[in-house]
Amino acid sequence: MNTPLDARSPLVFDTRELGRRPGAMKRLTREVESPRDLGVEFVKVPDGATIELDLRLESVMEGVLVTGTARAPLTGECVRCLEPLDQRVEADFQEMFSYPDADERGRPVAEPGEDDEETYLLEGDLFDLEPVLRDAVVLALPLQPVCRADCPGLCPDCGAKLADEPDHRHDDAVDIRWAALQDLAETMKDGEQDNEPRTDGDDSQEK
Q1: Partner residues linked to 86 by β-bridges
Q2: Matching InterPro entries, A to Z (predicted)?
Q3: Percent of the chain at pLDDT above 90?
């Protein structure tokens, strides 16, 4: 059994003022604390960070249409140079919160393949924005976060940060797959030199 929504929760909103009057609209802004684990492996919204919300609530025949924008800080690391990130994300979203007792005749006909989509319901006059917010923010995150678009990354040979050393290079760089073979070749070469017969000046005088 689902836990009843708490009207005091920062991500729970009250639609009572709309009064189920189609066409009624309400705009509001709110700053809320970020829920936990809002992000992906390399980048996320810090737990407890402030998320700025701009919302528009519209009463329609089948429920309340919520349109909004969320803005939040991001932390993580650049996938190229592994340096810490300090950026922001802006995510737009729109979702219908349906009346549980709405007349089915007042609802739009679902398109093929839409039956599997999650349906959000109003609980009395309340709705919980967290699942919608979470989906919108995660989808807006960069798949490959970088500290800057032209970040050159790290040197593949020594790990040096190339942005700090633009002229960094290795003249004698050897593919790691061939390093052991090169060491073996140098060892054999040194051994051959040690085994070469020595020629003295007296040998040339012997007949």
Answers
A1: 75
A2: YceD
A3: 49
For the full predicted model, state whether its pTM sits above 0.85: no
Largest Cα separation within the chain, whole Å, is 123
- Distance, in Å, from the CA atom of 16 to the CA atom of 28, rounded to the nearest integer, reads 14
HSE-CB for 194 with a 13 A CA cutoff? 6
Rounded to whole angstroms, how far apart are CA atoms 143 and 76?
Answer: 12
Please state the φ and ψ torsions of residue 42, each to the nearest 5 degrees.
-95, -15
- Three-state DSSP class for 62? coil
How many other β-carbons are positioned within 10 Å of the β-carbon of residue 129?
A: 24
Contact between 50 and 69 (Cβ < 8 Å): no
- Encode burial over 24-54: b for 16+ CB neighbours within 10 A, e otherwise: eeeeeeeebebbeebbeebbbbeeeeebebe
Quote the CA–CA distance of 127 and 7 in Å, as a whole number.
9
Strand partners, 68: 55, 93
Local confidence band at 105 (pLDDT 50, 70, 90 cut-offs): very low
Phi, psi for 182 (deg, rounded to 5):
-65, -40
